[in-house]
Amino acid sequence: MYVPKHFEGDETTGRQIMQDHGWALLMTADAAAAPVATHLALVWQDDGSPHGCLIGHMARANGHWKLFARGAESLALFWGPHAYVSPHWYASAEQVPTWLYQTVHLTGPARTMSDAELAQNLDRLSAKFEAGLAPKPAWTLAEVSAGRREMLLRMITGIVVTVETVEGTFKLNQHKSDVDHVAVALALTRQHDEATRAVGKQMVALRPHLEYNSRAPVSVPADQRNAP
Length: 228
Known about the structure:
disordered C terminus; 6-stranded antiparallel barrel; 8 strands; Pnp Oxidase, Chain A; about 25% helix
């Protein structure tokens, strides 16, 4: 992944993005080097290895998991909130449109789980996401009757990706001046889209020492700057 030096992310922040946004894209090359991709929920887990592992599952009818036997590396992509930035939002002139985002790439070999591992990790997976719905009582696999539970388990394949490499790009206008940082952050937090507002809040958290208020300068188009 191309990672400009000033947008390079650390592994701790990348792990937080994985925990906050568990939806991922998993890609593996087939025998012809063509990419095979599956969208699925993945959860990072500390297994004692340097970078931990990712656990999840996919439909057994999805032939993607059969590629793991070849020993080919898989690539898991996670991303957080992202947003378009208009040049009009900067305090400085001569700006251009851009996109702010946070993304994490993890690579390593993948394998399938045993039946016992699958049942155990399904509980871990649901517990992680059900916790975000508190105070609602957490759903557990035990609420499904034994017969139906066994049938459903036969329809999925558990997977484990042993993470060997972690790369992160966190583009939040780190290379811009304080005045432009404040102006864009305020503009983003005023938008209707929740993800866009989230990016603005991340920018505020990145430079908390600055003053963010409605009096901060916000740019207007050049042809309007001298209007009465």
